[in-house]
Write a structure and sequence with these properties.
CATH architecture of the largest domain: Orthogonal Bundle
Radius of gyration: 22 Å
Order of helices and strands: HHHHHHHHHHH
Structural class: mainly alpha
Helix content: over 70%
CATH topology of the largest domain: MetI-like fold
Number of helices: 11
CATH class of the largest domain: Mainly Alpha
Number of strands: 0
Shape: globular
Length: 265
């Protein structure tokens, strides 16, 4: 037990040190105004200036409106994508008719970037709010869908055959074998989908939003407030990282056997 906690402490310290080193490198690059030709730090705001802008934003009453708008859009779009992606993935992974019917059109839609959906979403939905939720939904859907399909297809056929030989019906096989076997891939897809949801939402907010972190970042660019641009980027990164971590933590709670396996290692 002691070695387990010591190992976790070392990993946490190492991760914090990595973040600190990145901030130090950023500070040195902006202080020395490094110009490498391909990339230059002459106009990049230093960490201290960004910290002042972040503190000003946190003291502003607008911060709750920006955060609330983005979080609401992300979680609605992601929630819908999680339901649809898992349901479609389970169907496609288990039924050949579903794979032949549903997968071809979904594969055609999958490579289309979020930016390309924005004009059509504005035409399809009466409000910009609904269109931004839709773009978030589209961005999160495909990672969830494909990981669910791969997770179902990766379940060992011998486990299914063994369950059937013991008298398990189709529903019991699905509940006791398919779902637990596919769950790790499903959770991975949900975590990836949460990250892409933030990416797509920020893209939509830059174009058609009135509040939100993406809108704040874009407006900071238009008025050439460079420190606020970095603040918006950091908020997006922290919120995306935190929400993905919540998804992974919820997935771990659904898979207690994985925790037992990790302890045995």
């Amino acid at each position: 037990m002691g070695s387990f906690f010591n190992g976790n402490l070392r990993r946490t310290a190492w991760r914090i040190a990595a973040l600190v080193l990145c901030v130090v490198a950023w500070h040195l690059a902006t202080r020395e105004r490094i110009n490498l030709g391909v990339v230059t730090f002459q106009n990049v705001p230093p960490p201290g200036e960004v910290a002042e802008s972040a503190w000003s934003l946190l003291q502003s009453p607008l911060v709750l409106q920006h955060l609330g708008a983005s979080l609401r859009r992300v979680f609605i779009g992601f929630g819908l994508a999680a339901i649809a992606g898992v349901a479609l993935g389970l169907a496609i992974g288990r039924a050949r008719w579903a794979e032949d019917t549903l997968l071809p059109p979904l594969e055609v839609l999958r490579p289309i970037p979020a930016v390309a959906w924005i004009p059509l979403a504005i035409l399809m939905f009466p409000s910009s709010e609904a269109s931004m939720v839709f773009i978030t939904f589209v961005g999160a859907l495909f990672p969830v869908l494909l990981n669910t399909v791969h997770g179902v297809e990766a379940v060992d056929a011998r486990l299914v055959a063994s369950a059937r030989s013991l008298g398990a019906g189709r529903l019991a096989v699905f509940r006791e074998v398919i779902l637990p076997g596919a769950l790790p891939s499903v959770v991975t897809g949900l975590a990836i989908g949460m990250g892409t949801a933030w990416f797509c939402l920020v893209t939509a907010e830059m174009i058609s939003g009135q509040f939100g972190i993406g809108y704040y970042t874009w407006m900071s660019y238009t008025i050439q407030n460079y420190a606020d641009i970095v603040v918006g980027m950091l908020f997006i990164g922290v919120l995306g990282m935190g929400s993905s971590a919540l998804v992974r933590r919820a997935g771990q709670a659904l898979m207690p056997w994985r925790a037992v396996q990790e302890k045995r290692k």
